[in-house]
Every structure is written in structure tokens, then in C-alpha cells.
Amino acid sequence: MKPVVSALNAWSCVVISLFAIVILSILGSLFGSNNHAYTGSEGEPEDGPAVAASIYIAVLVYAGFFVFCGFQAYLHILDRRGGAISLR
Known about the structure:
Blueprint: H1 7-32, H2 36-39, H3 48-81
Helix pairs in contact: 1-3
């Protein structure tokens, strides 16, 4: 199987997706717990769990990017070694 994206794009996507998953998970847990710093002041959303649900959907999207780009990076590693089955 051949990679679809370049190695630089694949590794960049892996790193960015990993940071996004961590940061959005923290934000989602803060909104989900109705933390007063995020839901208690003026101009902030009143329904923290609803905001947390939409953030967790974004986490799932980034997890999909992480898996796809990680697989692409793995294919680049295999391609550099000479294929899935190396005769060396």
C-alpha cells in the first residue's frame, strides 16, 4: 500500500492532532464539570455539558486524523525500509 500524503504532512498531522486531543479533552472536562470559571460569568455559555459534548465530537474527529496520519507515517517508514517485506 502506498502513502497518500507526504511524510512531512503525515508527521505534522500526527503532532498537531495529538496536541489538539489533549487540549480539547481538558477543555471538554472543564466545561463538562460546570467549572465556574467557564460557565459562571457573564457572556459565557450556561449549558456546560452541551458545550462539552460538542468539544468531545471535535476530539473524535482529531482522533480520526491521528489514526489516519499515523498510518500514513507508518507506511512511509515501511516504504523507506524497502517495503512491507524486506529481503535483507
